[in-house]
């Protein structure tokens, strides 16, 4: 397996992890962004070389500065800002337009799904499965039901949308251009 395929596989896993954490906790771990930065450095060393390194780093830094201002204004979460900036560096300047457009489209679809979910779920409750023994407390089915109940509650109350899911979707769609 070529080294670039390992980098792409690692990036896919990072994006899946970031989306999963954001969906479950509304927090994107900083380690996801740091790993993407390291994978971006590997990409530059093995594929693109130093010719695009300055453009990629400058674009990522500029993106991060703008996103921090949006975060300070309360329009974006800090984890989202870090993940977008790290993704900008990892994907490179050439794929920036694809990444931003697919992320925006994914975010719009996600927001629409949450609006539909709010209309359908508001006023309804979802019961947690009963605890019947220590083994069932840790079963994957019960954990999934607890996670679904928590998400049901968030959607019904119009709480935050896990934009990390849209960022991950946009990045995964844009990853095809790295070969």
UniProtKB/TrEMBL annotation:
Keywords per UniProt: Membrane, Transmembrane, Transmembrane helix
Record bears the keyword Transmembrane: yes
Spans through the membrane: 28-46, 58-79, 99-121, 161-178
GO CC terms of this entry: plasma membrane
Highest taxon listed in the record's lineage: Bacteria
One GO-annotated biological process of the protein: signal peptide processing
Pfam name, any one: Peptidase_A24
A GO molecular function held by the record: aspartic-type endopeptidase activity
Domain Prepilin type IV endopeptidase peptidase: 10-112
Family assignment from sequence similarity: Belongs to the peptidase A24 family.
Record protein name field: Prepilin type IV endopeptidase peptidase domain-containing protein
Organism, as annotated: Skermanella aerolata
Upper lineage: Bacteria, Pseudomonadati, Pseudomonadota, Alphaproteobacteria, Rhodospirillales
């Amino acid at each position: 397996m070529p080294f670039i395929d390992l980098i792409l596989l690692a990036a896919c896993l990072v994006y899946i992890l970031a989306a999963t954490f954001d969906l479950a906790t509304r927090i994107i771990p900083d380690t996801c962004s740091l790993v993407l930065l390291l994978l971006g450095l590997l990409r530059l060393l093995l594929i693109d070389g130093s010719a695009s390194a300055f453009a990629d780093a400058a674009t990522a830094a500029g993106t991060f500065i703008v996103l921090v201002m949006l975060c300070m204004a309360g329009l974006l979460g800090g984890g989202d800002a870090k993940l977008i900036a790290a993704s900008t560096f990892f994907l490179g300047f050439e794929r920036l337009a694809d990444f931003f457009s697919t992320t925006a489209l994914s975010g719009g679809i996600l927001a629409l799904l949450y609006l539909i979910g709010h209309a359908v779920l508001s006023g309804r409750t979802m019961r947690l499965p009963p605890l019947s023994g220590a083994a069932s407390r840790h079963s994957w089915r019960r954990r999934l039901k607890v996670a679904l109940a928590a998400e049901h509650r968030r959607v019904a109350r119009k709480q935050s949308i896990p934009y990390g899911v849209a960022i991950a979707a946009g990045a995964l769609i844009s990853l095809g251009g790295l070969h």
